[in-house]
Amino acid sequence: MQTEKVDVLVIGAGPAGTVAASIINKAGYSVKIVEKLKFPRFVIGESLLPRCMDALTEAGFIDAISERGFQKKSGAKFVKNGRICDFTFENQHTPGWTWTWQVPRADFDFTLAQTVEKMGVPVEYETTVTGIVFNGTDSVTTVEDIHGHKKQIEARFIVDGSGYGRVIPKLFNLEKQSVLQPRKALFAHTNDIRRSMADEPNRITAVVHEKGVWIWIIPFSTGVTSVGFVGDHTFHDRFKGTPEEQYRAMLDSEPYTKERFKDVEFLFEPRKLEAWSATTDKFYGEGFVLTGNVTEFLDPIFSSGVTLATVSAQTAAKLVIKKLKGEAVDWEKEYMEPTLQGVNVFRSYVMAWYEGTLDTIFFSKNPDPEIKRQICSVLAGYVWDQSNPYVKNHDEAPKRLARLIEVTEKLNPTA
Ligand code: FAD
């Protein structure tokens, strides 16, 4: 069997894999990406957060992305029964990026992969990892192309950025169930012909449809808008027929989407995804590090996926470089803890969202502007800023605030 040698093998050419590959390549090490699919390929996850711009900058991707003319995103809007809570990233507690993009991921990910290739990182498409043998930190990975040709890649280190493929956790039985309840999404890309009469395209909208059920609306610069319904199986089971019939019935069942998306054309048959939350005990091991969705993917509500993917890849890449230089790396302290910090803050907010705690806060009658700025920073992805009480006390602070709002509004119902 043919054998190749690289310093670092990266599995997957999504945002995690390409960010890690670019940063390691820039430090002078040989890197190769193997990617199971042919690009451009569809993947969901179209609303970015400002915090990922730091990682994309360090990876050297910002100019190439800017040239694509993606829709700029400057905030997020939450809607419930006609009430609106608008967050604008300019009004946030943590200094940082105040905007990002809304992107069709096929184009976005292809841009990242083409850019990293131009930087000198070969990307081998339609090549799947089928086995890995570790010998200390060195490894031999077996890959297979779509014609069934196999070869081996020897590497000094592996970065697993295989997303929902979860290559290393699956090969080495590291999979663990998430504490989050399984949910489903039904979504499509729509020809948003009534957009100008309805919403501003420079932000995403999350509509609270009923308890535990919400809708994402993500406008792209092309005039196409991504719309998805997220809820548990009891919600989805209420809709019968083909995916298109179910999806049209869902659009009709919410006043906010009924008017705007009535009879619009879909760019593909509505697709269903379910039970996406997954994790592992440890995000590293001898000779490998897990990045992006392979570490833990929570839930789409706060658009945290690409941000956690790129930030974990950015951190991992720097530690891999340190390791290859022969320096000591404390993976627990330097990787696991910061990566978990981001995941844990978002997990608290995801749980608070489904419990209704955030509804109480977002749709309160007299929101405190300073607290709104602090929560806005969480929604912008600045979930490592310990000066923000809504990051530092991510579990308790939203609950305490919601209780206070409930009591105040009960005492002053007309205020
Ligand atoms: P991916 O983007 O999945 O890339 C991994 C790559 O690895 C893929 O190209 C895959 O083909 C490749 N691969 C897999 N197995 C192998 C193998 N054996 N060998 C070689 N290559 C392999 N995130 C957001 O930020 N914003 C959102 O609005 C958002 N909405 C979402 C909505 C839903 C319903 C869901 C389920 C998720 C959403 N996400 C969102 C999350 C987002 O999809 C992911 O977090 C993000 O794509 C993770 O990036 P990644 O680089 O880790 O993995």
Automatic annotation (TrEMBL):
**Per its UniProt entry, which superkingdom is the organism in?**
Bacteria
Q: Where is the FAD-binding domain?
A: 5-330
InterPro entries for this protein: FAD-bd, FAD/NAD-bd_sf, Flavin-dep_Halogenase_NPB
Signal sequence, renumbered to the chain:
none
Pfam families per UniProt? FAD_binding_3
Alphabetized PANTHER family for the sequence: FAD-BINDING PROTEIN, SLR1998 PROTEIN
Q: What's the protein here called? A: Tryptophan 7-halogenase
**Source organism of this protein record:** Chitinophaga chungangae
